[in-house]
């Protein structure tokens, strides 16, 4: 069974390579993006600062890799009883199903895509009263759909929506990290702006 799966993966990869659309001279192959709105944006109300930075690497004219870094930084006073921080490093493979428009120099960084995602997540809670730090980690997997508009000048805007499982590795209860519920799905997505080059 394992041999059949390996052979199938090799055939799929080979087909993908053969079908790859090569770059043209002057095509934009990289992009740096920032999420200006995302699910964690509401955390600002409770004193947390959400950060999302992404880097796109075009593989060919129909697909690109997206590397993203997420953080939720506790901005509350150091005298607060609990200080909680979250960090995530993710990777997704975005395959463009179609492009709304095709400008010279714009490749897979422009169009509607579907993307499987994987992320490594770390959650840290510090109890200032007991001087105790608790850390928990996990991997999450998901799927996103999205649209990117990349203009010839390089300006880029995008929107995405998806789900991830599990949504978080832990839950907070009275400031303490407790084991996360494995059946929880989380919403992912955001509104991004950036620059392609």
Question: Can you describe this structure?
Answer:
- By secondary structure, the chain is mostly beta strands.
- The protein has 1 helix and 10 strands.
- The chain has one helix at 2-19; strands at 30-37, 48-60, 63-74, 82-98, 111-127, 132-150, 155-165, 170-173, 176-179, 186-196.
- The strands form 2 sheets. Strands 1-2-3-4-5-6-7-10 form an 8-stranded antiparallel barrel. It has a two-stranded antiparallel sheet with strand order 8-9.
- The protein starts with a helix and ends with a strand.
Structural class: mainly beta
**Shape, per Cα inertia axes:** elongated
- Rounded radius of gyration (Å): 20 Å
Order of helices and strands: HEEEEEEEEEE
- Helix fraction, binned, reads under 10%
* Discrete helix count: 1
Number of strands: 10
Strand content: over 45%
Would you identify the regions where 5 or more consecutive residues have pLDDT less than 50? 8-19, 172-177
Q: Could you tell me the mean pLDDT?
A: 77
Keywords:
197 residues; mainly beta; 1 helix; two-stranded antiparallel sheet
Quick overview of this protein structure:
This protein is mainly beta and 197 residues long.
Task: Walk me through the topology.
Elements: H1 2-19, E1 30-37, E2 48-60, E3 63-74, E4 82-98, E5 111-127, E6 132-150, E7 155-165, E8 170-173, E9 176-179, E10 186-196
Antiparallel strand pairs: 1-2, 1-10, 2-3, 3-4, 4-5, 5-6, 6-7, 7-10, 8-9
